[in-house]
Write a structure and sequence with these properties.
single chain; alpha/beta; 2 domains; 5 strands; Restriction Endonuclease
């Protein structure tokens, strides 16, 4: 199904969609939350409760929306859900990576070659949460991590690489990373090309 962004390269498409969606979210948030804020608060505890609720809703929406945008892009690029990729399957007991390629069934099949498996974790920011990805899908030695974080330090990047994390960043954000590590970062388009070549 064609849409306004479907002709854009996947790296630009992802960021445009996120920007558009965030503007819609801000309008809704303004309409829903501002009246409550303008009524005022009777205590600091009440204020903090409302502020925490708004903050948590923003974080939850941001992470989930990024997963759904990636899912839509995969489908637009010809990947078939539950055949070529799965969203939040169970790779190992109690472990649910964001995306598994090609599927949970192939991952759990000991005869399916491990070098044909891929994991894509999706995190709006890395911070220390990237370490969680290391524990997912133990059959897959290199785990791909897509982030929209605008830069990481060289030390953090090296630490990620040493633990088997391949950073994936939309190409418009690459310039925000140290020049020394930019050639080692994979773009979303590069990751999808790797999947197609499997």
């Amino acid at each position: 199904m064609a849409n306004a962004f479907s002709t854009l390269d996947v790296d630009y498409r992802l960021l445009k969609r996120r920007d558009c969606e965030y503007k819609i979210f801000q309008s809704l948030e303004q309409a829903i939350s501002l009246p409550r804020i303008l009524r005022g608060f009777n205590s600091i505890a009440e204020f903090l409760s409302v502020a925490n609720s708004i903050s948590q809703r923003r974080k939850s929406r941001s992470g989930r929306s990024l997963e759904l945008h990636i899912r839509a892009i995969l489908i637009e690029q010809g990947f078939r859900e539950n055949l070529d990729f799965q969203l939040q399957p169970e790779s190992d007991p109690g472990r649910r990576p964001d995306f598994l390629f090609p599927s949970e069934q192939e991952y759990k099949n000991p005869h399916f070659p491990a070098d044909k498996l891929r994991l894509l974790a999706v995190k709006t920011t890395c911070k220390d949460r990237w370490r969680q990805v290391c524990q997912e899908a133990q059959r897959i030695p290199t785990k791909h991590l897509l982030t929209l974080q605008e830069g990481v330090s060289e030390n953090q990047f090296r630490e990620m690489k040493e633990t088997g994390i391949q950073l994936v960043v939309p190409i418009p954000l690459l310039s925000r990373f140290p020049k020394t590590i930019q050639p080692e970062i994979q773009t979303l388009n590069g990751f999808l090309t790797e999947l197609k070549n499997l």
